[in-house]
Specification:
Distance between the termini: 37 Å
Helix content: 25-40%
Number of helices: 11
Largest sheet: 6 strands, parallel
Strand content: 15-25%
Number of strands: 9
Bound molecules: adenosine-5-diphosphoribose
Structural class: alpha/beta
Shape: globular
């Protein structure tokens, strides 16, 4: 899919547009300084849990209680008053407020810290932790409460059919058609705080670049796909992102 769309690209007439179109992709690294663990760093979530036990449709079918408990714990952490947006989240909201740029903020994160930092219209391609979906009636609701197998859907009444609105391994990320179409038509693609291990997000740099965009990585260290970017800066997101936004807005 990505290859077909990449070939369909061009320079998109970017030079003729007054407003610069920027796509920012964020990953767990942007929330790390807010107190949320990343997935693949030392001591990260996947060092403590096996993906196949808690983050696949098979895991949920086999042992829903275990899967729901994992997400209940993650919800509890996100409800902790000590967890809040950091300067990187806030800087991206500042960028969105600029009338010289059009920003599409795509995140792999299921937390709500971009929203708490002031961003609206964030595209959560891996879902949202504070939303629950009913597998019986497909109802999708805002929900910060604990998830248990005993809970019934408030819509259809079915018990044991609720799941977090989080994209599991083996499932299709959300809004991919829109994301790829925007990637074909952006001037700048910036990847922040992601290891580049998970596709299709890891492919976005290639798609944007082959369509003519400039590409930049802002990360603690070189990601898996570091060599695919035109430019890179390494350090903590709370420092790098506000500095980069200041430059863009200057
Ligand atoms: N500032 C900037 N980058 C950081 C910081 C920080 N303070 N701390 C860590 N990083 C970087 C790490 O160096 C790493 O490259 O953030 C990246 C985090 O990588 P992952 O843990 O793999 O997280 P992510 O890329 O978001 O994972 C993608 O994997 O399991 C799934 O669905 C989950 O959305 C997630 C996806």
């Amino acid at each position: 899919m990505s290859e077909t769309l990449a070939r369909a690209g061009g320079d998109g007439g970017a030079a003729a547009r007054p407003r610069k179109r920027i796509i920012v992709l964020t990953g767990a690294g942007v929330s790390q300084e807010s107190g949320l663990a990343t997935f693949r760093d030392a001591g990260g979530i996947w060092a403590r849990y096996r993906i196949e036990d808690v983050a696949t449709p098979d895991a949920y079918a086999r042992d829903p209680a275990r899967v729901l408990d994992f997400y209940t714990q993650r919800r509890a952490q996100l409800r902790d008053p000590a967890i809040d947006a950091n300067d990187a989240h806030r800087a991206l909201a500042r960028l969105a407020g600029s009338d010289r740029h059009e920003l599409l903020l795509v995140t792999q994160n299921v937390d709500d810290l971009h929203e708490r930092g002031g961003s609206a219209g964030v595209l959560h391609m891996h879902g949202e932790l504070f939303k629950t979906r009913c597998l019986a009636c497909d109802r999708l609701v805002d929900d910060r409460a604990d998830l248990t197998v005993a809970r019934a859907c408030d819509g259809c009444g079915a018990a044991g059919r609720l799941r977090p609105h989080v994209v599991w391994f083996g499932e299709m990320p959300l809004e991919l058609d829109r994301i790829y179409s925007e990637l074909m038509d952006c001037d700048l693609f910036v990847s922040i705080g992601t290891s580049g291990h998970v596709y299709p997000a890891a492919d976005f740099v290639r798609a944007a670049r082959s369509a003519g965009a400039r590409t930049l990585e802002l990360n603690l260290e070189p990601s898996e796909g570091a060599t695919s970017f035109h430019d890179a800066r390494y350090g903590p997101a709370s420092i790098l992102v506000p500095a980069w936004v200041d430059e863009i807005l200057a």
